[in-house]
Specification:
7-stranded parallel beta sheet; about 240 residues; binds 2-phosphoglycolic acid; 10 strands; single chain; 3-stranded antiparallel beta sheet; alpha/beta; 7 helices; globular
């Protein structure tokens, strides 16, 4: 495991985009695991700039997003389908048939989640998984609990997550209560994991992930048992670590 601490979020974005670009240059048909939220936006902007400069080609890459809300349509302004279109896919040349995002409107969510895991496996597994981290230590929407859930599944969002995400919606009432999330198993099976965290408000989650017990109460702590994980942090997010 490696931890790098940077001065600014912009530096993290450049470092993350460089690692993703290196992955694609080494293996143009890479399978990328992608994340939403505020944290990866500068990274996506850096990737878009690399693509627009002619340096980075996504045409043979495949992507699987981590999660999606249940019960809002894909074109809803707060859906993760829409987020990915607006923040990345509409600016790069990834083939639409290689883009995958969990279906939050499936009639049978369990069957759809199972099919999502199967699609990852048949694509050869995730080469590089990009992650943010929630204030409560969630990765994807794997919320604190008594177990690590292996497969893609429907989750009930915690109060902490609803509160954190209400900034994207008109009010807390409008935040969906359920989501579909990739499980910890698929995340852990990714060949490489890149976790980004910025801001002092993430410092406790980062501390528990890196220095607490490995426990489903802080889901990101499982990453310490992954053979190839890189944490890219800014000073704020690293501020409660005792060593780095
Ligand atoms: P954020 O979300 O990047 O918007 O802070 C991260 C997460 O909840 O995983």
């Amino acid at each position: 495991m490696q931890t790098h601490v940077f001065q600014t979020a912009q530096q993290i974005a450049k470092a993350a985009a460089t690692l993703i670009a290196a992955q694609l240059l080494r293996k143009p048909d890479s399978v990328l695991g992608l994340a939403t939220g505020s944290t990866p936006i500068p990274t996506y902007q850096a990737l878009i700039a690399m693509h627009q400069s002619g340096m980075l080609d996504f045409s043979r890459a495949t992507s699987f997003n981590l999660d999606e809300y249940v019960g809002i349509s894909p074109d809803h302004v707060c859906s993760y389908h829409r987020y990915m279109q607006d923040n990345l896919f509409s600016h790069i040349n990834m083939s639409p048939d290689r883009i995958h995002i969990p279906d939050g409107n499936a009639a049978d969510v369990a069957a759809s989640a199972k099919a999502y895991d199967a699609a990852i496996l048949s694509a050869g597994g995730i080469d590089l998984q990009l992650l943010g981290i929630g204030h409560n230590g969630h990765i994807g929407f794997n919320e604190p609990g008594h177990e690590f859930v292996y497969g893609c599944h429907q989750v009930q969002l915690s109060e902490t997550t609803i509160k954190a995400n209400q900034r994207f919606f008109d009010s807390a009432q409008d935040v969906p209560r359920f989501a579909v999330s990739l499980g910890i198993g698929s995340i852990m099976q990714s060949r490489q994991v890149l976790l980004l965290a910025t801001g002092e408000d993430k410092a406790e989650a980062v501390r528990m992930a890196l220095e607490g017990d490995v426990s489903p109460q802080w889901q990101a702590s499982i990453l310490r048992t992954h053979p190839d994980v890189i944490f890219l942090l800014d000073k704020g997010a690293a501020s409660r670590l005792t060593h780095w």
